[in-house]
Amino acid sequence: MHISARNQFRGKVKAVRKGAVNADVILDIGDGLEIFANITNEAVDELGLKPGIEAVALIKSSFVLLSPDPDIRISARNRLSGNVSAVIPGSVNTGVKIRLAGGRTLTAIVTAEGLKELGLANGSPCTALIKASHVLLAVGV
Q1: Mean pLDDT across 62-69
Q2: DSSP of 60-112, one letter per residue?
Q3: Is the pLDDT confidence value at 2 over 90?
Q4: Beta-carbon count within 10 A of 57 CB
Q5: Cα→Cα distances 139→46, 56, 57, Å
Q6: Are 79 and 64 in contact (CB under 8 A)?
C-alpha cells in the first residue's frame, strides 16, 4: 500500500482505553516515543487492536503544529521533540523535517511566515504537536 501521509511510524500497541464511542490507543514506536490516537471503538475492533499488536501511525504533514517551546501548554496529546534537520522553503508553505529520537524524521508543512515568526532553522530545537484525532492507525501493512 502506498499512501500520501509523509509521517509513518511503526510500533506496538501499548494500551487501548475504550470510552462510550471512541478509544484512546497508545502506540509505542520505540526510543521512549509514544503516539496517541483517538479512533472509534468500531475501528479498534475491526483492526483487532490490543496490547502487543503491531500497527502503523499515519500523520499528514499538514496536521503537525510546531513550537520552539517544548513546555508549551496545549491540548494536543502528541508532543514529539527533536531538532530541525531540514527546511524546504516555499513561497507560501515551507516543509520542515524534525529529527526525533532513534533517527526518525517527522515532516511538517507550515506557512513560511509562521516558520519565520517561530525563529526555527536547521539545528533548532523543535517540538511537534499533533492532536490524537489527527492520527490514523493501520495494521497488516
Answers
A1: 97
A2: -GGG-EEES-TT---S-SEEEEEEEEEEE--SSEEEEEEE-GGG-EEEEEEEH
A3: no
A4: 23
A5: 10, 6, 9
A6: no
With CA atoms as reference, report the closest residue to 36 among 21, 60, 17.
17
- Closest of 32, 28, 25, 78 to residue 50, by C-alpha: 25
Closest CA to 124 of 134, 132, 115: 115
Query: What is the per-residue pLDDT across 93-126, written as a single tens digit (0 to 9) for each?
Result: 999 999 999 999 999 999 999 999 999 999 999 9
**Mean pLDDT of all residues in 81-90:** 96
Contact 115, 97 (CB under 8 A): no
pTM for the whole thing?
A: 0.94
Q: What is the mean pLDDT of the chain?
A: 96
Q: Does pLDDT of 1 surpass 80? A: no
Contacts from 19-24 at CB under 8 Å and sequence distance 24+?
23/49, 24/77, 24/132
Reading the block at residue 16, the C-alpha cell is 487501548
CB neighbours of 102 closer than 8 A, spacing ≥ 6? 30, 31, 33
